[in-house]
Q: What sequence folds into this?
């Protein structure tokens, strides 16, 4: 989101993305990460240390499967989808800028050649 906004609105970027807003975004991302990871520590799914085998295990294997199947995949899909949307928007905007720049430079190139021949013929 930060890159997308910086490319599309470069003048407004410094006004809308300050250090305070960056700290809030970081805090929000950390909170979501802790909530996502914290699901595995709720009672039916929480890990325990098996003292006879000296390994960590879960109390309910089906709970771990549900977490892996639904929670982890959905969070990963949301993050990947959001990144994809912002990257595609940025890419399309950069392509449109490049197209406008090429059209502008092509007309300037013709004018520059004419000016060069006019000046050099004097």
A:
């Amino acid at each position: 989101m930060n890159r997308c906004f910086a490319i599309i609105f470069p003048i407004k970027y410094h006004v809308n993305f300050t250090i305070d807003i960056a700290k809030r975004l970081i805090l929000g991302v950390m909170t979501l990460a802790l909530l996502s990871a914290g699901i595995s520590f709720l009672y039916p799914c929480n890990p325990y240390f098996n003292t006879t085998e000296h390994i960590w295990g879960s109390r309910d294997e089906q709970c771990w499967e549900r977490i892996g199947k639904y929670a982890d995949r959905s969070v990963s899909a949301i993050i990947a989808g959001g990144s994809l949307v912002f990257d595609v928007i940025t890419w399309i905007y950069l392509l449109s800028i490049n197209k406008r720049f090429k059209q502008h430079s092509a007309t300037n190139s013709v004018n520059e050649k004419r000016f060069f021949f006019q000046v050099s013929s004097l």
Notes: The chain is about 80% helix and 5% strand. The two ends are 54 Å apart (CA to CA). Residues 61-121 form the longest helix (61 residues).
